[in-house]
Design brief:
The protein has 136 residues and is an all-alpha fold. Among the domains are: 28 residues, no CATH class; 55 residues, Homeodomain-like (Arc Repressor Mutant, subunit A). 58% of the residues lie in helices and 0% in strands. It contains 7 helices and no strands. Helix 2 packs across helix 3 and helix 4 packs antiparallel against helix 5. The longest helix has 19 residues.
Length: 136
């Protein structure tokens, strides 16, 4: 049973804030920029900004690979779905709060076109953006 101590060490490391080598794990840091984006909460302030993995990793002060792992661990979703969810949440909120045109909502939500936003909206809610606005 040579694996016994190794298994115990892995279990102890998982229960603490240390990795297998005794190093303290560091959570994904908060962005220190002026826009006060909070990547840990899964809500960047500007969904129309560059939300590619490289840009998000640079904002978080991590390599793209480490950022992907850390974001997935913190939010439970990979970066692509995180960006989609962020844009969709903004696209759902704007029609409720403003009377902006669908084209303007799509641009402010970070969608490349009105059609891309309509498809994402339809997939998530079963409604078009106009139907959603009329209902809520």
């Amino acid at each position: 049973m040579a694996d016994g101590p190794a298994v115990a060490a892995r279990a102890a490391a998982a229960a603490s804030n240390r990795d297998l080598y005794g190093r303290t794990r560091r959570p994904l840091p908060r962005h220190r920029g002026g826009d006060r984006a909070d990547l840990r909460a899964g809500r960047p302030v500007a969904p129309d900004a560059d939300l590619g993995v490289e840009a998000l990793a640079r904002r978080a002060g991590r390599s793209p690979r480490h950022f992907t792992r850390a974001l997935t661990a913190e939010t439970g979703t990979p970066p692509g779905r995180f960006v989609d969810r962020t844009r969709l949440e903004t696209a759902r909120r704007l029609p409720e709060d403003t009377r902006d045109s669908v084209e303007h909502v799509a641009a402010r939500s970070g969608y490349p076109s009105q059609e891309a936003m309509r498809r994402a909206f339809q997939r998530a809610t079963g409604l078009s953006p106009v139907q959603y606005r009329n209902r809520f």
